[in-house]
Design goal:
Elements lengths: L2 E5 L2 E5 L1 H13 L4 E7 L6 E3 L9 E5 L4 E11 L4 H20 L2 E13 L3
Parallel strand pairs: 6-7
Antiparallel strand pairs: 1-2, 3-4, 3-6, 5-6
Length: 119
Amino acid sequence: MKGRMDNALGTISIDKDVIATYAGSVAVECFGIVGMAAVSMKDGLVRLLKRESLKHGINVTVSEDNRISLDFHVIVSYGVSISAVAENLISNVKYQVEEFTGMEIDKINIAVEGVRVID
């Protein structure tokens, strides 16, 4: 289901890929996030996605009452507190996506798929 906003002039619909791409670009700017992860169900391998494939590490669901749920698959940098990174990611994404879409975030789930050492 697409996100939607109604105003005096009509309806604005927002595709889930647009929300995922924007949320991914906000997420990779957060401290401690190396990037988005793609999990191969066939081999169980996790790989770091390139910057132009950010939406593949995010699953977006829009409910009937027009609320957004986001599932992130991320790779964090070695040596940082995962809970601090997750709290930072949740607060930044919640604020930025709600401002961008005009829709309310219902839930943000984070799956840490790996840890990488940053040079």
